[in-house]
Amino acid sequence: MKVKRIVTNIDTQNIAAAKSFYQDVLGLKVVMDHGWIATYGSNEEMSVQISFASQGGSDSPTPDLSVEVDDIDTALERVKHAGFPIEYGPVDEPWGVRRFYVRDPFGKLVNILAH
Length: 115
Description:
The protein is of the alpha+beta class. Helices cover about 15% and strands about 30% of the residues. The longest helix has 10 residues, at about 70-80.
């Protein structure tokens, strides 16, 4: 047996609120919408990963999600333009990533990073 995919599910009664962050800011596309669940994704090939942490590194809180992007400066600009406040960073971490934290419309702490 092999794991083919890991999907993150965020509990909410306001599914439409995901659009403002996950589509408009991060550029993901709606790949499934049944009304009671909407899934956002991209055509990028991704590695299957799941992390367990006691902190987020550099003594920051453990984020709920980590999203790797190819252009951290553009991501930061889009987040700020959309009015989502930055909670940490941007910072160049000693383990080789540049990143910042932001809360999505559901209060989830999202680590946006680039290697």
